[in-house]
Prior knowledge:
This protein has four helices and five strands, in the order ααβββββαα. Strands 1-5-4-3-2 form a five-stranded antiparallel beta sheet. It has about 220 residues and is an alpha+beta fold. It folds into two domains: about 25-155, NAC domain (Metal Binding Protein, Guanine Nucleotide Exchange Factor, Chain A); about 160-220. The chain is elongated, with a radius of gyration of 25 Å. About 25% of the residues lie in helices and about 25% in strands. It has helices spanning about 25-35, 55-60, 160-185, 195-210; strands spanning about 65-70, 90-105, 110-120, 125-140, 150-155. It comes from Apostasia shenzhenica. This is NAC transcription factor 29.
Amino acid sequence: MEKQTLEKPGAMKLPPGFRFHPTDEELVLLYLRRKVFSYPLPAAVIPEIDMGKSDPWIICGGGEQERYFFHLRTAKYPNGSRSNRATGSGYWKATGKDKPIIVPKGNQVVGMKKLFVFYSGRPSAGSRTDWVMHEYRLAGAETAGRRDWVLCCVFMKKRAARMESEAEQQRIVRFFDFMRENERDASPSRRLSSPSSSLSLSCVTELSEGNGNGEDCSFSSSSFS
Length: 225
């Protein structure tokens, strides 16, 4: 599938070091409401994406960082009000109860937040993934007759990313455990020197603590002579 451009031509890009972390209220009032009523946006940092043509990993550009986008909802059936949330590789399934977005001043409900989980495959036999989406929509009758824009935030659950990192660390530790076992079983003429043993143990410690690039962990050719 062709990778979709995430930013419209002429869209403003954040300079290095800046991050887009708005609150729920800011997303609804400053971005979504302005989008629905065709008002100027504070900044052109949220693109328009057709969810039906974009799987979550395409929206996020192959990374795990959260991405915001506007989506124009379409009906799943011609005579129904249910939205179509299917993609090329799966579908988004709603879970849990909708959360109201409340402005403290006046205790007014300005929007609703719905949670979705992405399933790969067909709805009848889909497999749950770790991709999650928050969908924001306006509340109230003032939007009647206007285009059905929603604001979405897609990301991968941190638990999944953390588990993948921990699994990689375990593979590194098992690798060095295997090296030490070979060292103990080797004949005296082929046994690794003690400096190599301390070096491998140091590497296990560094890599298991998060230094997964291995830049500070090297072996001397004389260690295996």
